[in-house]
Amino acid sequence: MALDIKKFQAxxxxxxxxxxxxxxxxxxxxxxxxxxxxxxxxxxxxxHTIKGSSRMLKLIPITDTAHQLEEVLGALRDxxxxxxxxxxxLLYRGIDGLSALVERLAEGGELPAVDESLCHTLALAAKGxxxxxxxxxxxxxxxSPDILGAQMSGINNMPDLPGPxxxxxxxxxxxVRVKMDKLDELIKxxxxxxxxxxxxxxxLIDIREIERMDFEAASATGADKTMLKAHLHRFALTLxxxxxxxxxxxxxxxxxxxxxxxxxxxxxxxxxxxxVRELADSVGKDIECIVSGSEIELDRQLIDKLSDPVLHxxxxxVDHGIEAPAVRQAAGKLERGRIILSAxxxxxxxxxxxxxxGGGIPIEAIREKAVRKGFVAEEKxxxxxxxxVIDLIFLPGFSTSSIITDISGRGVGMDVxxxxxxxxxxxxxxxxxxxxxxxxxxxxxxxSLAMMRVLxxxxxxxxxxxxxxxxxxxxxxxxxxxxxxAERRAVxxxxxxxxxxxxxxxxxxxxxxxRKTSQGKKQDGLLLLVVRVSSEKLxxxxxxxxxxxxxxxxxxxxxxRRLTMVSGMVTTGKNELVDILHxxxxxxxxxxxxxxxxxxxxxxxxxxxxxxxxxxxVDDSINTREIEKDVLExxxxxVTLAEDGLDGLRKAQQEEFDAVLTDVEMPxxxxxxxTERLRQDNKYRDKPIIxxxxxxxxxxxxxGIQVGADxxxxxxDFDQGNLVDILRVLLG
Length: 732
Fold this sequence. Notes:
By secondary structure, the chain is α/β, with parallel strands linked by helices. It folds into five domains: 5-143, HPT domain (Four Helix Bundle (Hemerythrin (Met), subunit A), Up-down Bundle); 180-261; 263-446, Heat Shock Protein 90, CATH 3.30.565.10; 451-590, CATH 2.40.50.180; 605-731, Rossmann fold (3-Layer(aba) Sandwich), CATH 3.40.50. 45% of the residues lie in helices and 19% in strands.
């Protein structure tokens, strides 16, 4: 089926206008503050996005102009070029040139040839060879710029909103086609809502009549007061029924209205096949692209923001994920690579997956670069699990590639994709790495951002909200079930250690803000709100659950958008604004606080060995792995993590460890089988193997002895000192 190129051009024009406006604002800000790194990064991403989008549509004059602008902004970002008024004037010329080309395209005219003079001047400026611009010789890495490799480069930021001083631009009107039966249903529902409103007016008349009766009953007999109470009771019941009926109507009306603005993912997916083929040809690769699930619908608000991260993940897969034909042939693979873009619905979520059968993420290259660039200390890098190493790719500025490509960009990193998916779209992003076999990026998105399920809790007398997609469970436990592990609190929930943090302490709520109404409400034990992002959990101590309801999420006002802890606001029935806390940020704060505690502990721990013993910790729960790792590292052990029995066996065979700690219930291979397999290996015939599990029956303990475990620790009885003592005894 032939693509309607005009449809994509219209979307490009709209997007390009927003980015050009951002470029203008950014240059104004750059003149005032040349050292604002965030501003330089932002306008660089805007130029990069225009270049990439226009390149896909073969708008060559726009592509070439945006590319040269990007070169100059990239040099500013890399500190190889210093800002000057002359350079600013040249950049404004470049933006004006871009704007003129985009408006010419919007008018339906043919694009003129690229302005060779402008592009040549910009190219010289990027090298510091004209207009008095001097290169900055202080950056030794400029000859090999830091860009993202192995599927990690070229991710652009989403379009920023125009500032208040930007004049509104004429845009093609947005239209939708709605079937008459759906429109009739909507009109019918509106009639029901109007009737419901009439009943609300009657309730107002009723309450005024009751007020009059109350006034007259002030000096009346007991019979009159009894009659008044009966009237009040009937009014309350009638009002309750009216509110419930109106709530059902409004929910149905809202649901049907949302359906009308749902759009198919084909809007994003349709151009993918051709784009992948053309990009593959340009880099000398043979790649097929398979698309499925394009009929699945998302809210228009999500569709608009999803396009950029999906397209740039695909560019990464082409440029860095799929190997060159000769490399694939040498590895015994088919010369033709494969990229799969798919989507499926999972309850109230839509999962978008970008998968390739390339070489996978180079774990050791990332580990080495992280140390060299100072993202992680050398002594800690070796103990990072594979998942922890993969998480490094989401750090701002992290990259591994040593070359610049026109396709996937230069250092516009995965942090932007993560920020877009998690912050703007209230979703989640995860990575599945298959060394030598490929990589899959999974984007988990809500169906709509207009209304979401929200839990309201009270902390220190102040209400806060949580989006339901991040909430795992709410439970109350006795204080005695809280464990103190590695100088922090934890609780065991279904065979998993979950860190416990007081939300009041985390938010640092001042005492003078705590409302008196919150006093006396606390019940026995602790109320824990367990939140989750991917496989990581955190239990937050809260005072009270206030409400759980579908609510309209209000975006933050412009002056509050830098508050990363808050993702939006909701309005309560009392017309109060309540902050929605951003769970990924809370998890990052908890990790940072834990890191500070552990650093202090390690510096003051006596008797740490200069040649630490190596311990392999195997558990499918990331929280349990981290807690056990923290305990062991605090006592001077060097810890490697494995996420299941099969991963643990592979790592144990590749390296040699002094001891192994393993859970029992794990996917792929359980702890009993792992122990049995390790005992068959001469390296681990006599090495200590400790089983740590929530299973507390005698049969399992006997099974642990039979397969060769040296110790069996029940998580409910977990004590960090006991674990370390047992390990010391077994290690002699």
